[in-house]
Write a structure and sequence with these properties.
Blueprint lengths: L24 H8 L12 H4 L1 H29 L13 H6 L3 H32 L5 H9 L6 H11 L8 H13 L16 E3 L5 E3 L9 E5 L24 E7 L23 E6 L2 E7 L5 E4 L7 E4 L19 H26 L3 H9 L4 H12 L1 H16 L3 H6 L11 H10 L5 H30 L2
Parallel strand pairs: 3-4
Antiparallel strand pairs: 1-2, 2-8, 4-7, 5-6, 5-8
Helix pairs in contact: 3-15, 5-6, 5-9, 5-12, 6-9, 9-12, 10-11, 12-15, 14-15
Length: 471
Amino acid sequence: MPTPTPTPPTDEPPGGETRPTAVTGTDLKASAAPAGKPTPPRASVMRSRPWIAFTFLLPALVLLGALVVYPIVYSIFRSTLDASGTGFVGLGNYVEVFTDDDILTAFKNNIIWVIVVPSVCTALGLIFAVLTERVRWGTAFKLIIFMPMAISMLASGIIFRLVYEENPKQGVANAIWVGVHDTFAESSAWPGANPRPNSELAKSGGGDYTTKSTVSASDPAHLPLVGLPPKDVADAAPAKAATPGKSGEVTGTVWLDFAPGGAGKPDVIDQKEKALSGIKVEAVKGGKVVATAETGGDGTFSLPKSAEGSKLRLPAANFAEPYGGIEWLGSTLVTPSIIGSYIWMWAGFAMVLIAAGLAGVPRELLEAARVDGANEWQVFRKITVPVLAPVLGVVVVTLMINVLKIFDLVYIIAPSQSQSDANVLALQLYLSSFGAGSNQGVGSAIAVILLLLVLPVMVVNIRRLRREARR
């Protein structure tokens, strides 16, 4: 007998009804694609129709070649020629770049700019971005900090050239500084005053004026001074001749020995002559100060009896020129001053970028750290800053590229006498190429060096962008 063939199992339920079989996504893919023939990838436009892609890219390539490639190639070629552009000097221009004192100063200043500006701007931007989240008017505060970015470098340079004026009546920085200084330090009573030539008062060293002879209680001392413009004493009271002291005191008068119209007599207190109040008078005996006094509103003073037989001295502090503030644009402070103006402009840029990154920090992460017992400084240092590291990198790299090319602020703010002390590479490039004794060979060499300095920063930035794009 033939062996019966076994029947394959089916999904039919009892009773003869057929149960539907589930179809999976793998079955659909297998049925859709023919067996052994995988779906080919779509060909790119560059491969399938390269002439169309080239047509669209041609204008951009022409502009790129004309504005970027050609200037770079020509600058490299021009850096090997002499000032006239006809003689080949090889690396001679590069040797001059690294041996010229002005260009070496520019290198040093560029290093200072690259180190200080990105770090300070990023730090201030981070502080502003964190603090503005905790104040009520945070948006208005951000607007104020970012507002300098709307001002051009030229306008900012003109503004800060006025801010740093040395005259306190014109420069805001020195006006504030002098105001603070005069609050805590005494100013001179009558700056510029001095005795008449061949008078009783004579210079005694250090700017002091001392009487040639000793004084007596019975004979009041007359200490005339000159050298003050009449307008400076217009509001002063008339001078009064001192009378002998009743109890042996030494008396005297200090006044401006000048009458309008020249009608007065030397060493005599005339009717229209003005008193000099607030002048300190010292009685000196044996090289030591035995008594001091200060002139009153009428110019008179009174010393105790112990001053009998001493010489009178008017200290130099009475006549010192008023404090004029700080020479912001001098050879010492010109570079820090210009850096301050740049930070004023770009701290807002750093703040806006960091604030945008801060808005994306998960609040749950911060709250979890606080719940675990972390204080605000620990949350900021161990969570906020590490999370914002990519944004901080963008800010630092952008500012490094910008400060390597800084030119306008230095050229506008630095006065001619201290411009060499504030020199940077971009400014030196301009001065070498188009200044006195122009040498475009040296200028082109500086341009090539600037390009080589910027390239590593750009490469780091491009690699960082590609790394973030792959995430």
